[in-house]
UniProtKB/TrEMBL annotation:
Name this polypeptide is given: Uncharacterized protein
PANTHER family, sorted: CELL DIVISION CYCLE 16,23,27, CELL DIVISION CYCLE PROTEIN 27 HOMOLOG
UniProt cross-references to SUPFAM superfamilies, sorted A to Z: HCP-like
PROSITE patterns per record: TPR, TPR_REGION
UniProt xrefs under Pfam families: TPR_1 (PF00515), TPR_10 (PF13374), TPR_19 (PF14559), TPR_8 (PF13181)
InterPro entries in alphabetical order: TPR-like_helical_dom_sf, TPR_rpt
Amino acid sequence: IGIVMINHFFSLIFILLALSSCDSDKTEVNPAQSKAHYDLATELAQYSLYENALEEFKLAIKFDPNNVKAYRKKGLVHFGLRQYVEAEKLFKKAISIDPENVQAYVNLGMVKYSTGDKAEAKKLWEQSINIKTDDNDSKAINNIANLYKEEKNYTKAIEYYRLASNKDPSNSMYLNNLANTLRLSGKVDQAVNVLQDSLKLNSVGVGTYFNLGLVYKDLKENKKALDFFKKSIQVNPALTEAHFQIAQIFLAMKNRDAALKSIEKAIEFSPTNQTYQELREKILAL
């Protein structure tokens, strides 16, 4: 770690101690103090210091009980830690303070989805879309598209992915989701065109390379498929599904050694994956 980074952490700790000392049972509303704690909390969260971040969000709320951003961001930390009950309470509190907080509805929908209530998740995401016409609700639209994709309702999924992409044209993930659904619905040429647009937005997009690999695998163009899967691994060596796809292609090409090497790499990153283990046994039996 460089000297600047070390000094930054020391200053961060100093601020943390100084601000935490302001805590008392009789706290007056102080928006400036609340913002200071909120800013520190968000920075701590970026460094994965989640427990410290939660304490600072708690202080931000104590100094300003109407700090809606603190409730929502604290909820996001709990959500990331899979503490869904606490996350749900905080997102609901944010909505009670600001009933037009689009992102709080999106976040609450993610809690519902993660706990298995997909119907309620969809309802919340639809609510978020209808709250404001000038807000970026593309995340909610993309999430609804994901639900339709899970249901294999590809027509509706494609419609919503296109809508999400139109709302946020710079988001390559939406294009990748659209392309993958086009591929699954048999519209391979359209999928390739969309992925080429995605590469223009993000020339090192691991998802784009991976999806291009899937497209060319479906087209039985193994060399192109291998090239794109390998490019996705260059960006993210731990992309286990790319190693798995490469193993399948080498197996189809009757290259046993290369197939075995690729599937063992996938298992190295994901040793409990039963599908990977089964493919390895199949290769070893040849």
